[in-house]
Design brief:
This protein is of the alpha+beta class. Helix content is 31%, strand content 20%. Helix 1 packs across helix 3. It comes from Scleropages formosus (Asian bonytongue).
C-alpha cells in the first residue's frame, strides 16, 4: 500500500513515478500530506529521480511553516498509489483520522448517507465551476543556462519540464549557442498570473543544481 519504504530506492522510484504528473501528494497546494511523505524521506532524492527531487526541493521551502499547512495528517500508507484504505473494512470505520465533511457521528454510514454526500459535493463543485472569472495570463520565454559544455541538455530540459504547477503550461524549446561550445535552453511557458510567478519558476528550476547554473527571463508578455 502507498509508497512503501521511502528510505529505499524502490520506494523513491514509486514516489518519483507518482509525482510525474502531480505537483503535490494531494490536491493543488502544499498540505499535511506532503509533510508526512517529506518527513518519511532520509534526504533529497537522487538527481535522476527529477520529479521526486523537484517536489522535495519545493516542499523543503515550506519547512518553517509546515505545521500551518492545511489538511490532517494520516498514516504514510494512506498516501500514494493504492494508498487509500478500503472503506468497507472495519478498521476504516473506526479510523480517527477520517474527515467527516458533513458532521455525521454515525459509525456506520448507510448507502443513502453516502449518496447524499456525493450529491452535495458534486453540487458544491458545480457551483464553484460556474462562477465567472477573468484569468490573467502571461507568456514567458526563459533562458536556462548549464554549468558547462558537458552538461546533459536533454536531461536538463526533462527536469525543467517535470515541474508541474496549477496554472503552468510548458511550450516549445530550443538550444541556443552562447559560446565556447556551451548552449543554453530557451523554453516557452504560459502561466496564470495569480497562480504562478517568475520567482516560483526560478526557485524550482535552479533547484536542479547538478544541471542548472542560472535562469533568466528573456521575454515576458501579457496575454
Amino acid at each position: 500500500m502507498g509508497f512503501g519504504d521511502l528510505k529505499t530506492p524502490v520506494g523513491l522510484k514509486v514516489l518519483n513515478d507518482f509525482l510525474a504528473d502531480k505537483s503535490y501528494i494531494e490536491g493543488y497546494v502544499p498540505s499535511q500530506a506532503d509533510v508526512v511523505v517529506f518527513d518519511a524521506l532520509s534526504g533529497a532524492p537522487p538527481v535522476d529521480l527529477c520529479h521526486a527531487l523537484r517536489w522535495y526541493n519545493h516542499i523543503k521551502s515550506y519547512q518553517a511553516e509546515k505545521s500551518s499547512l492545511p489538511g490532517v495528517k494520516k498514516a504514510l500508507g494512506q498516501y500514494g498509489p493504492a494508498g487509500v484504505e478500503d472503506t468497507t473494512s472495519a478498521d476504516s470505520k473506526d479510523d480517527d483520522d477520517d474527515i467527516d465533511l458533513f458532521g455525521s457521528d454515525d459509525e456506520e454510514e448507510s448507502e443513502e448517507a453516502k449518496r447524499l454526500k456525493e450529491e452535495r459535493l458534486a453540487a458544491y463543485n458545480a457551483k464553484k465551476a460556474k462562477k465567472p472569472t477573468v484569468i490573467a495570463k502571461s507568456s514567458i520565454l526563459l533562458d536556462v543556462k548549464p554549468w558547462d559544455d558537458e552538461t546533459d541538455m536533454a536531461k536538463m530540459e526533462e527536469c525543467v519540464r517535470s515541474i508541474q504547477m496549477d496554472g503552468l503550461l510548458w511550450g516549445s524549446s530550443k538550444l541556443v549557442p552562447v559560446g565556447y561550445g556551451i548552449k543554453k535552453l530557451q523554453i516557452q511557458c504560459v502561466v496564470e498570473d495569480d497562480k504562478v510567478g517568475v520567482d516560483q519558476l526560478e526557485e524550482q528550476i535552479t533547484a536542479f543544481e547538478d544541471y542548472v547554473q542560472s535562469m533568466d527571463v528573456a521575454a515576458f508578455n501579457k496575454i
